């Protein structure tokens, strides 16, 4: 079991303790333990009680509970609280913006014990009867429930990529003489996946025999040419069978998107059945269109006119910007993060962007700690040369759009990522102006995760995208493609507009540990969907080019 999964169990325990109004000091201790377990520098699985209990914030009793979780998935105190909690009340803990205290009031004061009842109460304006609830809170809860309901059965691409590859790999090894390929959303590298689609030249009877030997999948339904199944995580799969001679045309048609296929059919109603997708596009008078671009967003005209961009690849990246370390809320030290980039990833540079002083929840850096970090950066740059660490910061954008360090400090960073982390509930006009004010700050180099969205969890704050992107173009501010699979923000649908306006983009992992650095791959996927080429990506610049860019940027 991964540390994150163990941490989630402790978080649930602390939430239930608060729900039942247990000792607040013990409740806070369990919440703190959850955070500490998630940040452990080693896997809890395989560790001893002594090893765990010597970690800061983890005592012997917490270590013993970890051992019980590893053995049985839970511990007695948690089981007792779960047994006392109606399932619907447990489900309310997943609703954004609704904490245990409010849930206790909903449950005990209003007698509501399910999310369905809660939504009904919001629609009937009943929630305001409970203590601590106003019209605004009621509306936010309603929106959160509706957002959650709309996302049922959906998964992040990063969540399904590896497990989907296992199924495809097993098909290839069992039937090496056949053709098999991902198709649909997963082939187009969509950030959210409803179903993993696979096209194969195996017959359905062969697939059924193969699945009978693979008990992790449950068959939901099957037809003459397709079979649908789910795995233990609830991920849905659709395996479609096609004859060998139709593999290319069916791969094209099932990859989609629906709009893309309709636009192809507008060129020729009966799309020709040829030996490859490349041959089909050529027959339609088009250059080959990469699957990621097939979203009906202008790629057909690009292909007609020979204007398809040279799409960026992971190999094009020369460095990584926007990363954290143990100076703020990272798991690994500055040296560990930089060394991993140099030795394991083969990169030329590393940009450190720990949290700024306002982010006290993330151990944001006061000015004294910033200066300490600069001294270490200088030492490491001598040690790791010619690899270079750039002095950066993720500076909080305050409510008025200002950054949270004085100009004399901001001026000494090599680059500044400006991001919003608080007061996410502004209306569109105020949120847009807040960003524009930060963009116009002469020390802002990169606009970080522009909307603050968390996929399948929290919609971004409302902004006027065109105004924000236009401001970045006018002020030569780079826009981040935050590559964390939960963010992937800036959305690829707006990347094309940014590129049209001449804005540079930067694929930033926002990594808090070494393994998070490889999240740049997910950023590359959505950047390809947005039409990004290496020459328009900041961290595809060579070390010499980005050094020059940062110097020239400061002179403007």
What does this molecule look like?
InterPro entries: DNA-dir_DNA_pol_X, DNA_pol_lamdba_lyase_dom_sf, DNA_Pol_thumb_sf, HHH_MUS81, NT_sf, PHP_phosphatase, Pol/His_phosphatase_N, Pol/histidinol_Pase-like. Residues 1-295 form the DNA-directed DNA polymerase X domain. The chain has 556 residues and is of the alpha/beta class. The protein has three domains: 3-150, DNA polymerase, domain 1; 155-305, Beta Polymerase, domain 2, CATH 3.30.460.10; 314-554, Metal-dependent hydrolases (TIM Barrel), CATH 3.20.20.140. The chain has 24 helices and 14 strands. The protein has helices at 3-19, 24-38, 49-53, 60-72, 76-83, 87-92, 100-110, 115-123, 135-150, 157-174, 184-187, 204-212, 247-255, 258-267, 277-283, 299-304, 334-344, 367-384, 407-410, 428-439, 465-475, 492-500, 520-529, 543-555, and strands spanning 155-156, 180-183, 192-193, 196-200, 218-222, 226-230, 236-241, 319-323, 349-352, 388-396, 415-419, 446-447, 478-482, 505-508. The strands form three sheets. The chain has a seven-stranded parallel sheet with strand order 8-9-10-11-12-13-14. The chain has a five-stranded mixed sheet with strand order 2-4-7-6-5, sandwiched between helices. It has a two-stranded antiparallel sheet with strand order 1-3. Helix 18 (367-384) links the parallel strand 9 (349-352) and strand 10 (388-396). Helix 1 runs antiparallel to helix 2, helix 8 packs across helix 9 and helix 17 runs parallel beside helix 18 (367-384). The chain is globular. The two termini are 51 Å apart. The mean pLDDT is 93.
């Amino acid at each position: 079991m991964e540390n994150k999964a163990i941490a989630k169990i402790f978080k649930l325990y602390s939430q239930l303790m608060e729900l039942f109004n247990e000792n607040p000091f013990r409740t806070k201790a369990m919440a703190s333990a959850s955070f500490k377990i998630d940040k452990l520098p080693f896997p809890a699985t395989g560790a001893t009680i002594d090893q765990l209990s010597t970690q800061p914030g983890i005592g012997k009793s917490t270590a013993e509970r970890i051992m019980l979780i590893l053995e049985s998935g839970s511990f007695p105190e948690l089981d007792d609280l779960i047994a006392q909690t109606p399932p619907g009340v447990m489900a309310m803990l997943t609703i954004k913006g609704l904490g245990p205290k409010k849930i206790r009031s909903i449950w005990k004061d209003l007698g509501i014990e399910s999310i369905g009842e809660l939504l009904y109460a919001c629609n009937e304006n009943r929630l305001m009867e409970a203590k601590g609830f106003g019209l605004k809170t009621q509306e936010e809860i309603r929106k959160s429930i509706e957002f959650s309901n709309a996302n049922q059965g959906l998964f992040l691409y990063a969540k399904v990529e590896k497990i989907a590859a296992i199924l495809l790999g097993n098909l290839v090894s069992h039937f090496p003489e056949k053709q098999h390929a991902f198709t649909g959303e997963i082939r187009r590298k969509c950030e959210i996946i409803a179903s993993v689609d696979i096209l194969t030249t195996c017959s359905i009877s062969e697939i059924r025999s193969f699945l009978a030997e693979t008990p992790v999948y449950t068959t939901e339904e099957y037809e003459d040419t397709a079979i649908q199944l789910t795995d233990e995580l609830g991920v849905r799969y659709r395996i479609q069978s096609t004859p060998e001679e139709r593999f290319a045309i069916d791969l094209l048609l099932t990859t989609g998107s629906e709009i893309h296929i309709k636009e192809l059919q507008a060129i020729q109603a009966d799309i020709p059945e040829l030996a490859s997708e490349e041959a089909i596009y050529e027959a339609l008078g088009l250059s080959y269109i990469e699957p990621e671009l097939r979203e009906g967003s202008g790629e057909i005209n690009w292909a007609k006119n020979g204007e398809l961009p040279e799409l960026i690849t992971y190999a094009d990246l020369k460095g990584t910007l926007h990363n954290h370390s143990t100076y703020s809320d990272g798991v690994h030290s500055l040296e560990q993060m930089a060394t991993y980039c140099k030795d394991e990833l083969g990169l030329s540079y590393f940009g450190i962007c720990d949290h700024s002083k306002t982010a006290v929840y993330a151990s944001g850096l006061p000015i004294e700690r910033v200066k300490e970090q600069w001294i270490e950066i200088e030492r490491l740059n001598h040690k790791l040369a010619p690899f270079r660490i750039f002095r950066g910061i993720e500076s909080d954008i305050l409510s008025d759009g200002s950054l949270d360090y004085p100009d004399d400090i901001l001026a000494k960073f090599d680059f500044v990522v400006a991001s919003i982390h608080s007061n996410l509930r502004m209306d569109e006009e105020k949120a847009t102006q807040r960003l524009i004010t930060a963009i116009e700050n002469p020390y802002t180099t990169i606009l970080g995760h522009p909307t603050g969205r968390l996929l399948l969890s929290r919609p971004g704050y409302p902004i006027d995208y065109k105004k924000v992107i236009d401001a970045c173009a006018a002020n030569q501010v780079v826009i981040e493609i935050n590559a964390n699979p939960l963010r992937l923000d800036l959305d690829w649908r707006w990347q094309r507009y940014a590129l049209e306006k001449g804005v540079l983009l930067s694929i930033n992992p926002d990594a808090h540990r070494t393994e998070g650095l490889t999240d740049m791959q997910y950023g590359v996927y959505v950047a390809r969907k947005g039409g990004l080429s290496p020459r328009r990506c900041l961290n595809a610049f060579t070390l010499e080019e980005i050094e020059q860019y940062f110097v020239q940027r400061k002179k403007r």
